[in-house]
From TrEMBL, chains A, B:
The keyword Transport does not apply. It holds the Pfam family HxlR. It comes from Roseobacter insulae. InterPro entries: HTH_HxlR (IPR002577). This is Helix-turn-helix transcriptional regulator.
Length: 136, 136
DNA sequence: TAATTTGCTTGCATTTTGCAAGTTATTTTC
DNA sequence: GAAAATAACTTGCAAAATGCAAGCAAATTA
């Protein structure tokens, strides 16, 4: 595996969070697991934002090494692997939800997508349960 | 001003949030404003994590351009400027809080700092009000 | 008036990201 | 059963972002 970004040592909880998932791609992978029910390398690769293959595999390995997701073989297809959120990964749901709320309030671009924003506002607890459960 | 990182165009609220503050430093500056009451360039520069001067000024300008913080002259010192969170910036408080909670639960390093974690758990609403008010 | 402080800028090396083109081990299709 | 397709990567290289160190001008303090 090639190198992962260096981690800071300040002890600050915000810095720990940023060291774990504070980059351009990690939370999008986690979003795909939670919101879109994606589970495999090629599903993640197909997302709208267009992550590069080497970055994707690096993030998957780093997130696995950090205990945020787990990897297992697909029992039905020997060349396929299934990624799932661990409990530590599922605990990111409130962060994802608050980002969705913030963007829902402040993203004024016409292209802004609002379905998830509406789902959060209509039933926050149900939405969180959905995010935690979608990746089992 | 030198170039700011490119923004994505997917319309996804999670991607919009990451484009706005999803890098190694932005949320640490916002933490300094909210949690530590810092307001000036040199106060941000003094934080434990050790941001470089060119990165700091770049992030301050980008966050200002994105409407997350505002810059004004210090009336008492003509070479000093005061940075403050806008309403859009203050609305990041719930995200910061959820990151603190997540790290408080999952950072097992002996060096992990817990005061803010305890403050959040003891009085979440009061803590959020403090974060929103500390930067006026 | 000589430091010192504040808020920057600049140049350059290192690290990370992004793109494109492989590669290998399975399935699928014909 | 051979050929094509698919899934999960790997590799090489260019571009962009980050990090480090040294400066610099205007305002303030000693």
């Amino acid at each position: 595996m090639d190198t992962e970004p260096k981690k800071r040592v300040s002890g600050c909880p915000v810095a720990y969070g940023l060291d774990s998932f504070g980059d351009r791609w990690s939370l999008l992978i986690i979003r795909d697991l939670m919101v879109h029910g994606k589970k495999t390398y090629s599903e993640f690769l197909g997302s709208d934002e267009g992550i590069a293959t080497n970055i994707l595999i690096n993030r998957l390995k780093t997130l696995e090494a950090d205990g945020i997701l787990s990897k297992s073989r697909d029992p039905d297809n020997r060349r396929s692997f299934t990624y799932a959120l661990t409990p530590k990964g599922k605990d990111l749901a409130p962060i994802v939800i608050e980002i969705i709320r913030w963007s829902g309030k402040h993203d004024d671009r016409p292209s802004a997508l609002k379905p998830a924003v509406r789902a959060v506002e209509e039933d926050p607890d149900g939405f969180e349960k959905r995010l935690r459960g979608a990746c089992d």
